Amino acid sequence: MLFLSGRFFLFWPVTALGYHLVPRRWKAGWLLAASWFFYLCAGAAYFPVLLFVVLSSYAAGRLLERRPRRGLLALAVLLPAGLLFVLKYLTFALELAAAGLAALGLTVSSPALKLLLPAGLSFYVFQAVGYVIDVYRGDQRAQRSFLRHALFLSFFPQLLSGPIARSAQLRPQLESPPSVTWDSLRGGAFRFLWGAFKKLVIADRLALLVNTVFAAPANFGRLQVIGAAVAFSLQIYCDFSAYSDMALGSAQTMGFTLTENFRQPYFSKSIQEFWRRWHISLSSWFRDYLYIPLGGSRRGRVRKYVNLLVVFAVSGLWHGAALTFLVWGLLNGGYQVLGALTAPARMRLRQAVGLREDGRLTALLQMGCTFLLSTLAWVFFQASSLSLAGQVFARMVQGPLWVYASAGVDRWDFLAAAGALALLLAVDWAEQTQPLSQRWLKARGPVRWASALALLLATAVFGCYGPGYDAQSFIYFQF
User: Fold this and answer.
1) Which helix (H) or strand (E) is 194 found in, with range?
2) What is the pLDDT of residues 199-240, one digit of tens each?
3) Rounded to the nearest 5 degrees, what angle is found at the Cα of 239, between the Cα atoms of 268 and 443?
4) 3-state SS class at 470
5) Measured between alpha carbons, how far is 370 from 269 in angstroms, rounded to an integer?
6) Residue 297: its pLDDT value, please?
7) Cis upstream peptide for 177 (omega within 30°)
8) Is the separation of the CB atoms in 59 and 146 below 8 Å?
9) Do the Cβ atoms of 307 and 318 come closer than 8 Å?
10) Cα–Cα distance between 240 and 246 in angstroms, integer?
11) Per-residue DSSP letters for 381-394?
12) Distance (Å, whole) CA 191 – CA 459
């Protein structure tokens, strides 16, 4: 069962209503039963893997609280991480090994393994690993209640694609379940609707252009290929932030507050700032559980830069078992290293041309450069191979300016996407000072009703539906 499916629109209100009606002592049990039902609908074969991660991390937490030994921590981390490696990366590792041996003149065929990759595995494994590390450090007490620990890892709004919760943030809400209020109910529903609008009207429409051009970049002109690369930058933001909005919105209807995953990332003035605003739960996870333990910035500049590259290489591979993701991660890490090394020179250049450090023009130029750099990196993320990424880059600078061929969208698709993107830009700009759902709740009744109905109507009329479309398919589900 996935968001934007008919079954979910039956499951969600029943779950929220049941949570509101059951006695307080039964609320956690009700949510766990609903969350496990939700995951079983996504794939019954996935459930034993989730249950193993829940059981192993629960036992590890109890043991680590009594005996905080490094060996026990290593085992507690390696169990879920090893499972993730086998199911997601073993085939990739064997292919790399075979390619390496072939380069040495040894012919070895990589076995074709067909391993099950459970939905949401990367997300709940990282959540479990973060929990056991917190217990080992003494930052959190081990959870005594198996039911609440299972709910912590299985809570259905965040189960399939995050955000990756921290024990300190979600656990108090599970131990003392929040009450459902009228504001939380309608505010959460409106946020879910805004996410559905971004997904169906913007992301899925841009996907038509992106998928068509990236499938055969040589068939299109430079402007079309550049447009497709820009469109993917916007598509992946709208697609993943839409999922996050729907996850946080559905949780909010039951009174829960999940971690914000996005803060207008394309308004960032540097790649470093971009990664503080993009997929915040994952970026902060890598900072706290990998970058800082590696030494962070405490051991000199060279070690800091190496740590950055290691973290972003791992981040790239977390997203997918392919060289394209590794290059994407290293490129983002390299941007930050290069940015730190060139910061004094760039400051002198701005001073020489008379640009104020806090000026609006400076900020706009920095945002434009950040968007350009991230867009170039996203090409590797979207391309199915390094050779295809090379073809896309080559076509950006070679060949005709425009080729009269269908790029997957017509004039009306373009106008609908342009109008929706203009609305998104205005909302993101306004959300820098106050979240959209809070603004909506504070508006007068007629304004609330009119805006909600207009958004619902726009989603119904301009959303992508029918044959060839899958509203349940989100880019980050593959991770």
Assistant:
1) helix 182-197
2) 999 999 999 999 999 999 999 999 999 999 999 999 999 999
3) 75
4) coil
5) 6
6) 84
7) no
8) no
9) no
10) 10
11) HHSSSHHHHHHHHH
12) 13
CB-based contact 172:101 (threshold 8 Å): no
DSSP label at residue 288: I
DSSP 135-172: HHHTSSPPP--HHHHHHHHH-HHHHTT-----HHHHHH
Q: What is the pLDDT of residues 4-28, one digit of tens each?
A: 888 999 999 999 999 999 998 899 9
**Buried b / exposed e along 47-77 (16+ C-beta atoms within 10 A):** eebbeebbebbbbbbebbbeeeeeebbebbb
Whole-angstrom Cα distance, residue 83 to residue 240?
25
Token pair 């996850």: residue: 247
Give the residue numbers marked as catalytic: 319
d(CA 12, CA 445): 25
Tokens of 225: 């290929």
- For residue 272, which amino acid is it? Q
Contact assessment for residue 46 and residue 35, using Cβ atoms and an 8 Å cutoff: no
Which structure tokens are listed for 268? 């960032």
Measured CA to CA, the distance from residue 222 to residue 401 in angstroms comes to 5
